[in-house]
Design a protein that fits this description.
alpha+beta; four-stranded antiparallel β-sheet; 4 helices; about 45% helix; elongated
Length: about 100
Amino acid sequence: MSTYVILMNLTEQGVKGIKDAPARIEHAARGLEAAGGRMLAFYTVMGAYDYVAVVETPNDQVALAQLLALGMAGNVRTTTLRAFTVEELAGVLKKLP
């Protein structure tokens, strides 16, 4: 499984419908699970972003499809970071010359 940190900003539409946010978040989590992934954590934050999620998916294609579906809904805009565990980093470092 690949891990991603997703930074999100609410759109104007997302702010107008903020009272529906818990249901939208649950819907997104169920869609992620149906695609073979899972949401590890979700936070509402203060600062430059409105939400931060940490998710796992089987591959980049599943992650991309979920992110595109999230964007199509129109409530948030995302910035996504691929995250690597210490073990994954160690494996990469072993391949260095």
